[in-house]
Specification:
The complex is a heterodimer of chains A (704) and B (454). Chain A is an alpha+beta fold and 704 residues long. Chain A has helices at 157-162, 316-327, 348-361, 370-378, 426-436, 450-460, 539-545, 588-593, 645-648; strands spanning 3-9, 12-16, 23-25, 69-82, 94-96, 101-102, 105-118, 165-173, 181-184, 189-193, 198-202, 225-231, 237-240, 246-248, 270-272, 275-285, 290-292, 297-302, 335-336, 339-340, 548-549, 572-575, 584-585, 604-605, 654-657, 673-676, 693-694. The mean pLDDT of chain A is 96. Classes of the chains: A alpha+beta (704), B alpha+beta (454).
Amino acid sequence: MSQTSLRIHPAIGMARVGNSTEYYLGPETMAARPQEGSDTTGGLPIKPNTESTTITSADLRDAQGRLKRQAARFKIFQYPNSPSSLSYPSSPGEEVKIGSVVDGKKVSNIIWTAHLANKKANCWEIDETANKGIELYKNGNTPPLRNLPFGNNAADINRLQKLIIDAGPRAINSANGSSPIKFDNHTIASYFDTSSKEIKAAPNYPIQFPASNGSESDGSTPINYLGELLTDSSGRLLVLGGHGLACGFNNEGSFDGNQPLCADVDNDNWLDDTSDGPVTAVLIFEDGSKLPIPGSAWVVVTDPAYAPQTLNVVTLWDDVYNTWLEKFDLQPEVYSNKSYNHDYQPDFNEDVFPVLNAAHMQRWTTNLPDQAVNAHKSMMNFTKEPPKMNIMSFIRKVDGSQNSKGSPLMPLSLGDANQSFLTLSHQQYFFMEQWTKGKCVGATPLKLGAGEQLDKTVLVNCLGGRFSPGIDMTFIVRDPNLYNSRWHDPNIGPFRINTEPLDYAKATKDKPFLGVGYIPLRPDPVQPGDICKFMAIPWHTDYNSCATHTPNPNPGGKITNENVYGGEVNTTLYWSWPAQRPVAVYTFKDLSVNEGNLKNTIQRFSVRGEGTAATSPMDNPDCPPSKDFDTVAMNVGRYQNRKNILTGWIKIGTVIQGTAIDDYPDSYDKDYYLEVQSEFDKDYSNLVIQWPNNVDDKVEPPEN
Amino acid sequence: MKKKSFLKYLMLMCVGVYTLWIYSCNPKKGDNESADKDSTESLTSQTSVANVSFPHAKDSSCFAPEEWFTGPVPEPDPSAFPTDPSNCDFHIISWQYFLWLTEKVNGKLRFETMFSDKSITPETKDDTNQELDIVEQALSKGMLVDLSGRAVYSNIIINDIYRDWIIDNHLYNADSLANFDPKANFPVGSLSLKTTWKIIQPGDDTTNLYTTRAKIQLLTMVDGQPRIPENPKTDSVDVALIGLHIAVVVEGHPEFIWATFEFDNNAPDFKTHQTMDSPVSDKDWLLYTSKTLAKNTNVNNAQILKFKDESKQILTPVTQVARQYANGGGSDKNQYNIVQLNENIKGQLKGTEHSIWSNYFEVGAIWFNTEIGQLAPDWSPNVDSAMVTGSLRLSNSTIETFTQKVISLNECFSCHNTMTFFAEDGQILAGKNLSTSHILLKRFQGGGQVKRGK
C-alpha cells in the first residue's frame, strides 16, 4: 500500500572546519557544472540565511580574517504515495519545511538530534607505507592500532576513555531560532526521547574531551568543542564543525604541547577536532503531534574546501555510487548479475561530461604543461555524439592491467590500494565506453528529485579515488557493511550509513558510551566518530604532505640512491588530490599585476608560507630520520616542519572562479579559477616548474 | 634487384655447415626480430657482405663492410632491408645513412642539400634553406645553453620521398590530413633528420668537429623569456655539428628506425648506479664541466632562462649535459653491437678523407620487433612497449637533454607515436600512423613546436 515516506537529505552531509566562529553553507550545486543562466559554475558554497545565493571571495573569511566554517545543511523531504519497495531514483518528493503539510497536517517545528564524536586516536593505522587500504582488514585481520601505549585492544576502557572525543548527542528545536547548541564540555547532552516524545537532557552522558586541560603551545591546542547545531527559519538543520584544532597528548593522556609530528597520516599522541555522527529529525505538527522521521542521515566534519569549484576526476560520489550499483542492486538497468548492461544508455551530461570537465579543471590547481591544458580544454568540445578519436586509448583501463602505467593514460594522478595510478571507477569507465559506442545519443536523462540530487551533489563535491586515506571519507565507502542495506524501505532509501541504534537513556557518567564500533568488512554497525576515524590524525599533516609524490608502489621498485638514474624506477612526481588539495595555483593578485594576461602569470604553490622552502630531509625536530629516498624536489609545496601546518592551514587561499571574486574586472576571462584570500603575503616556497617534475629537479626560489 | 640478391644471399647462408655451432655460440633470441635468423646471419662474413646490397650482419661480430671506407659509402637501399634483420642490421644501416648523409657533395654535406621541413607544400617544395631555426628542446620551453652561454641550435631536414608523399597526398592541408587513412604509412625511404649545432667561440678547439657557416635566428624577449620571435633577425655564425638524429623508413619498418649520433666529446655517460650527488666525470667535455654532480646535469631551464647579455645573445644559466643512458640502453647485445660497430667504423674512418666523422658515434637506435607488433593508430610505447626494441631509452643528449630523466619521455617513440594529437588551437587529429611525424603535426596546428607525450 502506498503511503507518504519521509527522508532526510543529504544522506551524508559535509561540514568543514574553520577557525572563524562564522560560517557559510555547503555547496548544493556540483563543482564545475555549468549553471543555467549564469556564468558561474557550480560548487560554490552558499551564503547563510539564503536558499542558494552563492558566496563571493569576501565571504571566505570573517572580519578578523579567520577562515569561515562550512555548515552542513540538512533538509527533510516527503515522498507521497511511496511504493512499498523503493527503486532508484525514486519519485521527486518535496521539501518539508515549517509550514509544510504532511499527510494533511501542518508542520510547526522540527526537532533535530545529532551526535558528534571523533575516534581517530582509537583507530587502526592507515599504514601509509603499505598503501593497501581496506585490504588490510580482510580475513579477520586489522592493521596495527594507533596509540598502542594505551592498550592493545581497541575495546580497552583506557583507550575508549582517553582516545575518543565524544561530545555526545545534542537536540535542537527549530522553535528556538538560531540559538546554537554546542558540542562542548559545558552543554548538557540531549536527545529526542521516543518514549516521552520530548527533548530529554542526558546529564549522565559521559561527554569526553580527553587532554583538554592546558594552553595552546606550538600549534597544539586543547580540544573542548566539536561544533554546534543551528536551525534556519525553515526549520532545516545546520551542523557546524570544529575550528581545525590539533591537540598533542602524552602517554598518560594529558595535554602535551611538545609532541612531535613524525608521520603524515598516523601520528600517535594526537587528536583533532573533526568528527562525524548521525542526524535524526522529528516533525512537530500544529496539533501537537510528533512524527519521528524513521531513517537517519549522517554528518561528516572534515578539512576546508580550498578549491570548491574544482571537480575531482573521481569523486566520492563515484566511489559510493559504484558500491551501490555493484553491491546493492541500485539500478539493475545499469548493473546486474555482476556485469554492466551494454545496452544501457548513459546520459552524456550526467555520466560522461563530468569526467571530461574535471580533466579540464585540473589546470587551476596543478602545474600541468601548456599542451596538456590544451588537450584538456578540447574535452569541453565533446557532445553526446561519439568522439571522432579514440579517447579510450587515453583512459587507464579499470581491469587492473594498466595500474602501473603513467602518462599518457588518464587520470594522471596517484592511485591507492596498492595501485600506482588512479583509475576511473568502473561505472565511469563503462559510461565513457558506452558514449564512444554512440549510446549517449537518444539517452533519457535520469531525473533525480531534489533530495536525491542533494545526496549526490554533496558527494560529487568531495574527493574520491585515492583513499590514502583521502580528505572527506576514505576506503570504507567501498565496504557494503558501511551502509544500511534495507534501502528499498521508502523511509530509509539508498546511501544511508548503517547506523547503530543508540539508547542514550543507558548512558552513565563513569563508562564510555561509545565502543569500538564499525570495523571494515565486519557487520558491526556504525557509531558516531566511526567514519572520520579512518582519516589522517591530525588531518593537517596529511593535507600538508599530499602535494606530489612518486608512485606507490613504484612500478620499477623502490627508489634508491643507486637506481635513481637506472631507468627502471619511476622518478616522476605526480599529484595526490589535485582538485581538492591545490598544489599550484594562479593568484588573482598576480593576474591583476599582469592586467588579466594569464599567459604571463606564474603559478605559485598553494602552501607557501614561511618554512615551505623545500629541504631534504624535511625539518621535523624530535623525529627519527627517514630511511626513505628523499630529495628536495620531492618536498616542494608544503611545510617542511609538519608542526607549521597546524597553524598555517588557516592562511591557505581558496581557488574560485573569477566571476565570484569581488572587484573582478569585466575584461578578465570569466572562466579563470584563481586563488583569493590567501594570507601568505610573501611567497617563501619555491618556483613552480611545469610538469613533468622529477625527483632530481633543481629547486629554485620563488618570484616575489 | 637488391631484394633478389638479398634472398640469394640468404639461401646461400642457409646451407652453411656451421649452423649448429652458431646456435650454441649465439643461442639467445634476438631483441629485434626472430630468433632463428641468428643461425643464418652468423655465417655472414665480410667478404660475402661485399657482394650484396645490404650488408646483412651478425650480432656476434657487428662490423661495417670495408668497401664503405675505400670509396664513397654506397647509398643505403631501404627497400633491401632484410625481412629477418638482426639487431646489428639496424645499427649498420643507421651508420650507413650517417656516413652517406655526411658525405660531401659539391662542397656541402649531402644532408645540407636536402629539403627543409617547410618544403611540404606545393608552394615551398623547393625550400632547401637550412637556417637554424630551433632552440627549444624537445617537449620543453627550455634550451640547451652551452658553456659559453649560447643556445645550441637545431633544424629539421627531410628528403624528397618524405616531402613528396606529403605533397602528393595533400597532407599539408589540415582537412586532408584529418581524413587520411589512419593506417597509411610513410613510404620506404622517407627520411627526416634533426641536427644540432654549437656556435663556435673564439678559442674553441674545433679540430675534431665538422664546422660550417650557418644562418641562425636570433633570440629576443618573447612573453618574458628569451625566444626566437615570429619574425626574427638572423646572423651568420660559425657552427659545429654536435648531434644528428636520423629517422628513416626501411622495408618492413614504417615506424621509422630512429637512430641518433653525437660528437664524441659532447658529454659523459652516467655511470652504472650513478648517484645524484656524485660527479658524472672528472674531465671537461664540450657541454660538461668536470666534476659537475649528476643532479646538476640536464637541468631544464624553461622557467629561469634569462639573457645575461642580449646583444651578445648570452644566456644564463648554462646547461651541464650528461648522457643518462649509454648507448640508449636496451639489451646487452644491443649495447655490445653499438660499441663494437662504433669502434669498428671509427677505426676504419681514421686516415680516410672522411676521418672527421671518426669523431662522432652512434648513441643508439630504436625500432620495432615486427614479429611482436606493428605500427597501428592510437599506439604509445608507454601503454604497450612489447614490440619496441633496440636502444630502449634512446635520447640525444643535445636534443632531448631534459627529457632523458622522465620515464614517460625517455625514448623516441614516447613522443613520436600514433596517439591522438591535440593541437594548440583545440583541433584534434585522431590517432594515425603518420602522426609519428612532428613535421605533419606542426603543420596541422599551423606552426609552433609540437609537444607530445605529456
